[in-house]
Design a protein that fits this description.
Layout: E1 2-10, E2 13-21, E3 24-25, E4 49-52, H1 59-77, H2 98-108, H3 120-131, E5 135-136, E6 148-152, E7 174-182, E8 204-206, E9 212-214, E10 217-219, E11 224-227, E12 232-233, E13 243-246, E14 264-273
Parallel strand pairs: 1-12
Antiparallel strand pairs: 1-2, 3-8, 4-13, 5-14, 6-14, 7-13, 7-14, 8-11, 9-10
The protein binds fe (ii) ion.
Fe (ii) ion binds next to loops.
């Protein structure tokens, strides 16, 4: 397997890391289709993303409570006892080894709606009203919708490669939500390339699905290593209680956590156009 260096900037600062895979430039085609996109007709269609005030009342507090319960349950199964006043951004002080962390993320990438004390159907209807298209929680291409809790420790390469979720058929018709939980700020939150959903495939160098590796870990989505116009990302940095909404064809990822002593936690949801 070859390795190439992925060079990018985030808010103007250069970063680089090695990506392993078999790389190629795509065909002369644009995958984003305005006709079927959940963001069609919005004022941010050409930008590809926006920040949306998703939560109301005590929902952010309930989200935090759910995260505490989930991590306490997983910790108990691994012999890690979390205190009652556990703060999620201090995760790295309790899950001390790489092995423990890997065991945690095996479980946090397959959570379901039932793990949370929240009404996701209500969230879906708020977002549907905002974008002006009917949306549903259920993905007809999946047996059960999954919720992914992402955990990125400080001073780590706990990142996925730059990618488009839309390269996978199961996610080509969704609207992505990235929701900050803890440890998210201008030095850690999810970077995106504005307008990159409109880039043609022959301007993007990438791997096939399940073909990208960082630090020995294989990722499901194809990894992007280069682009004709360079890889220049910004961090929209949504506030707690907000969600970053974006088309699955927007290039995102490489969410390097630059905070020295704070774990970043975020939630990924996908709503389907119905
Ligand atoms: Fe993604």
């Amino acid at each position: 397997m070859e390795a190439e260096r992925c060079q990018l900037t985030i808010d103007g600062q250069p970063h680089a890391f090695a990506l392993e895979g078999e790389f190629f430039w795509g065909k002369d085609e644009q995958l984003f289709s305005e006709a079927s996109s959940p963001i069609a007709g919005t004022g941010w269609q050409n930008q590809g993303y926006t920040c949306f005030p998703l939560m109301q009342g005590d929902e952010y507090a309930r989200l935090l409570g759910s995260i505490r319960r989930i991590l306490s349950r997983i910790g108990a199964g691994l012999g890690v006892v979390l205190p009652d006043d556990f703060r999620p951004e201090e995760y790295h002080r309790y899950f001390l080894t790489e092995e423990l962390h890997q065991q945690v993320i095996q479980q946090t990438r397959f959570l379901t709606f039932r793990d949370f004390d929240l009404d996701f159907r209500e969230w879906c209807s708020r977002v549907a009203t905002f974008v002006g298209h009917p949306l549903q929680l259920e993905n007809p291409l999946l047996p059960e919708e999954i919720v992914i809790l992402r955990i990125s420790r400080p001073n780590s390469l706990d990142i996925n490669p730059l990618h488009r979720d839309g390269y996978l058929d199961i996610w080509a018709g969704v609207l992505n939500l990235w929701i900050p939980i803890a440890g998210c700020d201008a030095h850690s939150s999810l970077p995106v390339i504005p307008g990159s959903h409109l880039w043609r495939e022959n301007t993007i160098r990438r791997t096939a699905a399940k073909g990208a590796r960082i630090n020995g870990l294989t990722y499901h989505v194809p990894g992007i290593v280069g682009a004709a116009s360079g890889l220049h990302l910004i961090r929209p940095d949504p506030a707690y209680g907000e969600a970053l909404l974006f088309t699955p064809f927007l290039i995102h990822g490489a969410a390097i956590n630059e905070n020295p002593d704070t774990t970043r936690l975020s939630l990924e949801l996908r709503f389907c156009r119905s």
